[in-house]
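thought: fold this chain, then report.
action: predict
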Amino acid sequence: MLAVLASTLALPASPSHGASPDPWMASLRADALAQGISAATFDAALAGIELRPAVIEADRSQPRAPKDFCGYLDRRLTATRIARGQRMLVEHRKLLNGISAEYGVPPRYLVALWGLETNFGDYQGDHPLFEALVTLARDARRGDLFRGQIFAALRMIEEGHAPDRELRASWAGAMGQVQFMPTTYLEYAVDHDGDGRRDLWGSVPDALASAANYLRRSGWTAGETWGRQVTLPETLEPEVTSLSGARSLSEWQALGLRRSDGGELPEARLRGRLVLPERQADPAFLVYRNYGAFMRWNRSTFFSISVGTLADEIAGRSSLRACRG
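observation:
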């Protein structure tokens, strides 16, 4: 399979002795220059670019929607990750408290995102950024999307934001300790450590503050939680899939919803909606406005619930009973 992809994706050789340049790359260069990217930046970033068949292979192998919620959660909420997240809360307490005061996002959520995205910065991707983006941009499936990401990545370099080393990313072009795409970087990344660069690769302050900035601008409401696991009464289970829309906690209480430990729902002025990750009554989660910020980060119910539950586990306040027998 990879050999076939390699022959399909191979770039034409660099022009010499009157050979024609690659039309696709010539078009990309013309569009970049029309957007204000300098020829020097374009040529330096894309000189000798090689396409990566493994990137297309990874793209093609992504499931349309994950299945087995409990398996997904168990792989992400490991005892090792929870314990390390707790250590990170302590190790970076002063930094996290300062970011939380500025952006209104509690430290546990930032640590959870950090842990889920790159295992606290350990794995940030091993693909050269431009090779991954160009490979995907030349592919018919989502070419226009990744063509825009190339221009954003070039803008990062043009404006002096990128670190002074080869940019590396995931196969999809997500970068740094919190895995921002180039367009996301330009809009949300911040220079929290004050060194003049928005360095999501080597600067923990920049990475965590950028994550907080993203959540705040995605609608995060300070002082509210994200949600909780709940139980439903047997009388409600046959009609559970029809319970759409937000209701007050008192309304959900009257319908028979309870905490995962059987206790009553809190008396709080929150409106929540029911999320059923496996489209059945168990497990069930009641989620609030801040859950929406997780969904804007990653449009995956499984991922968004894993962020909230990992954050609660790290802080020692988990309501999770699903997947634990």
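thought: worth noting. Strands lie at 127-128, 168-169, 227-231, 247-248, 258-259, 271-275, 284-287.
final: tokens above.
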